[in-house]
Amino acid sequence: MNKYKILIVANWKMNPGTIEEANKIFLATDRISRNLKNIRLVICPPYIYLSELEALKSRTISLGAQDAFMEKSGSFTGEISPNMLKAEGEKYVIIGHSERRELGETHELISRKVLTSLRAGLKVILCVGERERDGHGEYLSFLRSEIVNSLNKVGKRYINSLIIAYEPIWAIGRGDTASLKPGDLHEITIFIKKILCEIYGPRDGMTVPILYGGSVNFKNAKELVVGGGVKGLLVGRESLRIERFEKLLLSVD
Ligand code: PGA
């Protein structure tokens, strides 16, 4: 099923500013990725660059979108459907990133987006994560309800296409400073697996890959993967800084 050892997803967010820069970063990443042995690499650029990057036909990088709408087609001005992404050749889609939840996306909306994307045949990277850590474990109940609600429409038959990215909001975009400790990540990985096993049963629940995201860089990537018990990483800022991204990839490969 998951033949690769490590999954690295690059989330470019609303960057870079032009297609020329996007091409440049993509081609440089493609050159690096040809020498990787254990990593499956996915790049999620802004929608507007997807077709052109797809046309570069990388043999080692898969492309994904940063979001998709909850309907297949219709009168939804400005939206892009998962089916359109699939038709363009995209394989992955990120759903429920905290920066989108921040714009008002609810559990209900996200659960519909997840289902429509899975039905369209995309692999869904569902993002979850608490805003802050309190001393009483409230963040764990928050995380549980986020996972349960976001998946409440998703049956077992889609489980092979589901990936969970744990991204604590407080750790995103902090540069070198505020990443999670590997030991703390390991606890959360076990907690998320337990929830998935409760929903889908132990055999299937254990198969869902769990990623970590939040200020991952070349200095902390390896210890997060090894010590955190995750299947891979969701990398924002550092995926656009090619020399640092190369070091990051080599460190975990
Ligand atoms: P960051 O972003 O690596 O820049 O913290 C991660 C994300 O938001 O996906």
Descriptive report:
This protein has 253 residues and is α/β, with parallel strands linked by helices. The mean pLDDT is 95. An 8-stranded parallel barrel has the order 1-2-3-4-5-6-7-8, surrounded by 6 helices. The chain starts with 5 loop residues before the first strand and ends with a helix. The relative contact order is 0.15. Helix 1 crosses helix 2 and helix 1 packs parallel to helix 10. Helices cover 41% and strands 16% of the residues. It contains 10 helices and 8 strands. The chain is globular and about 50 Å long.
How are the elements arranged and paired?
Elements: E1 6-11, H1 19-33, E2 39-44, H2 47-55, E3 61-65, H3 82-88, E4 92-95, H4 98-101, H5 107-119, E5 123-128, H6 138-150, E6 162-166, H7 182-200, H8 202-205, E7 210-213, H9 221-228, E8 232-235, H10 242-252
Parallel strand pairs: 1-2, 1-8, 2-3, 3-4, 4-5, 5-6, 6-7, 7-8
Helix pairs in contact: 1-2, 1-10, 6-7, 7-9
Residues 11, 167, 172-173, 213-216, 234-238 line the site of 2-phosphoglycolic acid.
